[in-house]
Amino acid sequence: xxxxxxxxxxxxxxxxxxxxxxxxxxxxxxxxxxxxxxxxxxxxxxxxxxxxxxxxxxxxxxxxxxxxxxxxxxxxxxxxxxxxxxxxxxxxxxxxxxxxxxxxxxxxxxxxxxxxxxxxxxxxxxxxxxxxxxxxxxxxxxxxxxxxxxxxxxxxxxxxxxxxxxxxxxxxxxxxxxxxxxxxxxxxxxxxxxxxxxxxxxxxxxxxxxxxxxxxxxxxxxxxxxxxxxxxxxxxxxxxxxxxxxxxxxxxxxxxxxxxxxxxxxxxxxxxxxxxxxxxxxxxxxxxxxxx
Amino acid sequence: xxxxxxxxxxxxxxxxxxxxxxxxxxxxxxxxxxxxxxxxxxxxxxxxxxxxxxxxxxxxxxxxxxxxxxxxxxxxxxxxxxxxxxxxxxxxxxxxxxxxxxxxxxxxxxxxxxxxxxxxxxxxxxxxxxxxxxxxxxxxxxxxxxxxxxxxxxxxxxxxxxxxxxxxxxxxxxxxxxxxxxxxxxxxxxxxxxxxxxxxxxxxxxxxxxxxxxxxxxxxxxxxxxxxxxxxxxxxxxxxxxxxxxxxxxxxxxxxxxxxxxxxxxxxxxxxxxxxxxxxxxxxxxxxxxxxxxxxxxxxxxxxxxxxxxxxxxxxxxxxxxxxxxxxxxxxxxxxxxxxxxxxxxxxxxxxxxxxxxxxxxxxxxxxxxxxxxxxxxxxxxxxxxxxxxx
Lengths: 292, 391
Known about the structure:
The complex is a heterodimer. Chain A is mainly α. Chain A contains 13 helices and no strands. The N and C termini of chain A lie far apart (about 40 Å). Chain B is about 45% helix and about 15% strand. In chain B, a hairpin with a 4-residue loop joins β11 (about 355) and β12.
């Protein structure tokens, strides 16, 4: 596999997973940007564990997931049923606080960053194989879990909350518990992504975890379709591929292209390219074929 | 006589054969020398990326006008990373897989962190000519540092500045937490302390600061005799204006660090920064045909604006690559890519007496050993040399 393809595939997988991490809480109208802070916290923690304490990568990765989940859970106790705006503010605040804390921690490289993360498995080719394997294994696993969530009562409850919170409460849905569950899941996923993101580059820098990442995931979700998980799968590789595949003269306009796409989609197809209806149509078609 | 003639002819034939073979060995096997430059041509620092690219392309133009490298033209190819580590890594991966002997960049530090490990893993030199020693050294020997270790370089420089103002007993720093800047501020502390100046607790400048009154009050409460600025150029200008509005008059006791020497400082500061001192690594007042030609061409291409200090970095880097190719057996033969990449890296790391556009210097194990630095006084948007500090 070419090196460029490896980086394209691995970063696309992170973008898919991080977009799903945003998609899941957004099913109940929470824009949970704290996930970017989770990436940074878990990533730097794992990097420190591996570099300074020689903890094996798999254990560091597991700790990254758990740390993300723990932070997500603790924060969700306060904002599990908060209004969307409050959740957004908490997320932005966490990103800023996390950056400030890391900037002032020489043990993890401070503003310079963390260099020289080791190759997993001892060689670059094994490292790439392991990273890709874990990433796409996660894509399949998380995709399966989200698919099951979307098709079960929890998913329907989240949809009800998205449409009308008060109505959802009157139907007996515990918004707070649902919010805690979804936010914790989202942060757990983001924590693991943070660890893997740094190991793709074999370094960590604060500017890997900025509001720019928020912009990328938002564009992926809203262009691809925020009502289903499949929009992300379509949009992530395409949006990331545009600046790489197009000639430089067009690629340099990518921010304009993203913005224009977002506006066009929000105006013409507010639900995104892939809507719930189109997914139902495809599922119905496949189901008919199976019966036949 | 016949025997002597035979010997002479045989010897000449032998010389021609060997040199011919040698010449064929080092003769360029490329139609052009392609040098990708991983740069920020779009995004937040596109204005900096533009003049870095301009400098590199200017060098390529001059080299080609003089006959190229081993008779073949050189082409600098701008590869936009848009300040995005994601894009930077994929672009570097593409570059190392192509028949690329050497690259320029990446710019800036987040992209360096993401992309340089790829160059290192694949044994290809990429010249990071705008970052500090502390970043570059992590990727040796597959890059060179443009600067000596920060502590050594800046320590001497600020000590020289302090010596210019013997009445200055205490100094405070405004420090923005970005990349190598806190490290540079630490180096200032050591230098000033060695010169007998007391360094007061620094004032942190948040990256998203938009008002500076409280920061200036915090600094002035400590009653410093002098101030050193280690933050973004525009912020420096605004802080200086705030200082002046609160009664600061000793303008020559204000020192701006090198990264603050950017167009935003002058555009935002205007007349308010007259008298402020600034240090940097090039002297724009140099009077040599080469520099004058560069300056004139830059001003013509940029509406009369003076060339920023970093504009010469990649200009010199392209000339270093030229010299490396010309003085090694590099041919551009794809079959010898690995060994030729190594040749270039080894040669550049220990290049002696390189003739840069500003001054000559030596490289030792990837680190320049004798580059001077300069302290200027700003007057009406121009820098007047106050002192040249030689290591």
